[in-house]
Amino acid sequence: MAFLSSFRAGQETAYPESLRDQLRAFPLLREVSDAAFRRLLGEANWFCLPGGTVLERDGENERALFLVVTGSLGVFVEDTHGQRRLVADVPAGETVGEMSLVSGDSPSAQLVALRDSELLRVSPAAFDMLIARHPRVMLNLLRIVVKRLHDTTQGDAVRARPKTFAIIPLQDGLQDEPIAHRLTAALADMGSRAAVLDSTSADQPAEWLNSFEAAHDIVFYRGDAPNSAWTHLCLRQADRIFLLGRTDRPLAMRPLDMPAFKERATGLPQLLLLHPASTTGQRPEHFALSDGLFETHHHIRAGVQGDINRLARFIAGRAVGLVLAGGGARGFAHIGVIKALKEAGVPFDYLGGTSMGAIVAAGLAYEWSLEELSARVRAAFVETNPLSDFTLPLIALVRGRKVSNLLQENFGDIAIEDLPLPFFCVSSDLTTGRIHEHRDGPLWRALRASVALPGILPPVTFNGHLLVDGGVMNNLPVDVMAERLSGPIIASDVTGEVDLHADDDQYGERPAWWLLWERMKGTPSIVSILMRSGTVGSEAQRRLVREQANYLFEPPLKDLGLRDWKSFDRAVAEGYAHARMVIEQKGVPLTDVWTDGPAVAVLRHKIAV
């Protein structure tokens, strides 16, 4: 990389004007005089760090300050299991090494080039000379340190949006697959300056590649042969990696066995699965998505432009996540909220939920139409009673077989990872006392676990663990969605304030005939008590995670109980009316316009009557 690495400390060099402007843009150097700036350049060391290379922090590098001019560095720490974990990235235009420079302590974190990077090293002596002439530089440095510490402790640290993406074919014959150009066109429709580089650019110098990236918002590096020199370069230049494979062809080798991947510092690739038909169909075994080989995956079906548009939104940081809370019959209101959002043109790119919310979200992930979703939910919960197969209450009040059969009838044997749209649901692990996230495996069984209210439905066993209703620990898993999505998150919370009370001081101690009489007057039954007990423990968690949602819908649903299954139409209507009102007041997520601003920017939208 001859662009910066040709400059050495102490040389009298005529630096390119563009490079001088780039360095001047660093917050640390904005107020430095021209003379001090020239002297700093003369004292600094320039060098390149290939992608995947560790920046050694011993000797003269131990307390040095580094300016990341091109590329990006990853900050790694060792966790309690001895595994290296990425805690932050340092993109071009930022500095790193401030803590050691100020404190004099040895660095505790490891710096690794996430991609080919070019750095400027400022020694402690050179920095001391700089602040002697410009004391304000130290104030700038302290501001950087304080902000970084604040963002880290408050959880406000913002990862830089990926800019360069490598698309690497896993099978022969995919080198000319136009998916990179289709993504470029979709991003261009959003207003993004996106472009594709292929092997015809293999001989271009680093300066040219850096300038090309600087002139665009998104650059796709399209690889050719899995182990070619160009593919190696694509991987080293990329902030994110997409592996491209067709479901109707075998794999020659596992992706992580490719020599080129051994150069990567961190991060699993994402898988783009090309389907020759318009349906996802059955995924072959060599694309096992639960083996930890991929960070995530995206289904790209032949002739389905919506799949390309969705992937473009993920790349742009504008993919929309929809999270639906549990709530029994109150969860019918989710359907009304979804109807209003669809009318407002909001796409759903990632679905998640708990209990009843998980079932509704799964229908969307299966791409059921609104009409089909309503019909299936009505048939399952209104026209039949899935909780009517009572049994001797040794484990639960009902056997749960009717619920299992209904879920299998509606969702079949499809695996979560084969759904057209990304989906997750949560259950509560009684064995570990932790949330269990369902991201793969049979969909119906994951839903069965997510709705297994303790005492009412039997738990679901998973590798010896007992899984029950997700609402026991997290009834609105917005936090789970936020870990996987950088775009706007919409949440529909139907929990409300449950009116569960009894005025009799001796309630529960009366004779059975008395309780039957009181039950007719509306005192809580055993089922109502169990359903409320199954979610009351997550109330504090629910109130906390609601703050992470960018858009929150709370249909009032006054006097509508958890078991008011016959109130389907009313719940849907109230959910729809509430959502229309909120959309009129607050707008909808801005998903189809490229912007460098917040990913949750809104577009005011008036719904046609």
Instruction: List low-pLDDT spans.
Output: 1-13, 604-609
Secondary-structure-based class equals alpha/beta
Q: Give the helix level as a range of percent.
A: 25-40%
What's the alpha carbon Rg, rounded to whole Å? Answer: 28 Å
Mean pLDDT: 83
Taken from the alpha-carbon principal axes, the silhouette is globular
How many E strands?
24
Put simply, the count of helices is 20
Strand content: 15-25%
First-last Cα distance = 60 Å
The largest pleated sheet is described as:
8 strands, mixed
Describe this structure in words.
Strands 15, 16, 17, 18, 19, 20, 21 and 22 form an eight-stranded mixed β-sheet that branches. The longest helix has 19 residues. With 609 residues, the protein is α/β, with parallel strands linked by helices. α7 packs across α10, α11 runs parallel beside α20 and α14 crosses α15. A hairpin with a 4-residue loop joins β17 and β18. It is built from 20 helices and 24 strands. The N terminus and C terminus are likely disordered. The protein starts with a helix and ends in a 6-residue tail after the last strand.
Quick structural summary:
Helix content is 33%, strand content 19%.
How do the strands and helices of this protein lay out in sequence?
Blueprint: H1 2-5, H2 17-24, H3 34-43, E1 45-49, E2 54-55, E3 65-70, E4 72-78, E5 84-91, E6 95-96, H4 98-103, E7 110-113, E8 117-122, H5 124-133, H6 136-154, E9 164-169, H7 179-189, E10 194-197, H8 206-214, E11 218-222, H9 229-237, E12 240-246, E13 270-275, E14 297-301, H10 305-316, E15 321-324, H11 333-343, E16 350-354, H12 356-365, H13 370-381, H14 401-411, E17 423-429, E18 434-438, H15 443-450, E19 460-462, E20 465-469, H16 478-484, E21 489-492, H17 512-520, H18 526-536, H19 539-545, E22 551-553, H20 568-586, E23 588-589, E24 602-603
